Amino acid sequence: MGRVKLQLRKIENRTNRHITFAKRKSGLVKKAHELSTLCDVEIAVIIFSPAGKLILFDAKKRPEEIIESYLNLSEKQRGRYEISFQVFNLGDKLRNLLELQEIENEILLCNFESENIERQIRDKTLHGLLVMLERKRNMIIYFFHSPFKHSFQLLSPINID
Amino acid sequence: MGRVKLQLRKIENRTNRHITFAKRKSGLVKKAHELSTLCDVEIAVIIFSPAGKLILFDAKKRPEEIIESYLNLSEKQRGRYEISFQVFNLGDKLRNLLELQEIENEILLCNFESENIERQIRDKTLHGLLVMLERKRNMIIYFFHSPFKHSFQLLSPINID
DNA sequence: ACGCCTATATATAAAGA
DNA sequence: TTCTTTATATATAGGCG
Questions:
Q1: Which nucleotides of D are covered by protein (CB under 7 A)?
Q2: Which InterPro entries match (chains A, B) (predicted)?
Q3: What's the CA A32/C1' C8 distance, rounded, in angstroms?
Q4: Rounded Cα–Cα distance for residues A108 and A116 (Å)
Q5: What is the model's pLDDT at position A88?
């Protein structure tokens, strides 16, 4: 859908791959939102970043330790906060069932107040957010460092143990 | 993206809504597959059908009873078997973690041998498949009747209780 | 990295079979 | 229903700042 027809295989050039990722991720999310609205259907799109995979399985640290070291970074080192978990059009009952209300609120906060996100993180601390989400969902939620944008991503839900 | 620009709201005409659902669902799935391949990223797209929502929250029956009544239908009444849970490009380790291997195999079987699906259902019975998947994933997986195509959909993962 | 531009590829709404 | 077809809308690759 551009100047050139792409072959359907991994884009080897790192820069181009990340540019394409950003563009197509937003395109996919938009499409999901449209389908959700037009057809009154509930959709979740979950994107697991390469970073998440790496850290989850190769890191010697436990998630808590990863979060701890994230909190020890300076604000500048932390980069922008990014949430990669998107939920569209979840009905009240299903939302309650999944106990996602609180998370959705956090996502909305992040989306609409992204300028203040660093302050939010200071106020609550990532750890506090994590604990809250964990309690609400009875699920373990991890934050991972992303190679894209040098930012953190929230990958969920991964139900471990 | 058609002859006419659609407004972003629920399509009220039932037939048109279902046609659009079928088209856009396949489009979304294709996009997710492309993004997954091009950028080497793991993606899950989970579509909760309206039928699933209805039966989950409004039915007096327990899921087992719903499955039981499904099994009591004649083969013609059952219609074609459909799985709406799609996973793209899950790495081996992540796949093992989520214990999705068995499910993926089932999905592949269903996709590539859809002509034989009725026989497969006879051989294993939906109940047997359900139990197997439940054991493998430590998750509860439900089958729901879909208003679309008068077929059944596998909605997962919904982690209940 | 991020946004804007433009040419091109792709998706799809409506209609026809 | 379930295909095609076709006109049009949309997505996006590559460039530039």
A1: 1-2, 6-14
A2: MADS-box/MEF2_TF (IPR050142), TF_MADSbox (IPR002100), TF_MADSbox_sf (IPR036879)
A3: 24
A4: 12
A5: 46
- DSSP assignments along A8-75, one per residue: SS---SHHHHHHHHHHHHHHHHHHHHHHHHHHT-EEEEEEE-HHHHHHHHH-SS-HHHHHHHHHHS-H
The pTM of this model reads: 0.52
The Cβ of residue A82 has, within 10 Å, a number of other Cβ atoms equal to 17
Q: Are B51 and B96 in contact (CB under 8 A)?
A: no
Instruction: Identify all chain B residues contacting A53, using CB atoms and an 8 Å cutoff.
Output: 42, 91, 93-94
* Chain C bases having any atom below 7 Å from a protein CB: 1-2, 6-15
Q: Could you read off the pLDDT of A2-24 as tens digits, one per residue?
A: 889 988 888 888 888 888 887 88
Q: What are phi and psi of A12, to 5 degrees?
A: -75, -35
Residue B145, helix vs strand vs coil: strand
Are A53 and B40 in contact by the 8 Å Cβ rule? The answer is no
SS3 percent helix, strand, coil of chain A, rounded to 5, is 60, 15, 25
- φ/ψ region of B116 (left if φ > 0, alpha if ψ in -120 to 50, else beta) reads alpha
Instruction: Answer whether B48 sits within 8 Å of A43, measured CB to CB.
Output: yes
Number of CB atoms found within 10 A of residue A89's CB: 19
Q: Give the pLDDT confidence of B76-125 residue by residue, as tens digits.
A: 444 333 333 334 444 443 333 333 334 444 444 433 333 344 344 333 33
d(CA A24, CA A29): 8
Token code pair at residue A86: 């998107």
Q: Please tell me the distance in Å from A71's CA to the nearest CA on chain B.
A: 26
Asked if the Cβ of residue A1 lies within 7 A of any atom of strand C, the reply is yes
Q: How far apart are CA B29 and CA A14, in angstroms?
A: 24
What residues form DSSP beta bridges with B85?
Answer: B46
Q: Would you state the structure tokens that stand for residue B90, as one six-digit string?
A: 């899950």
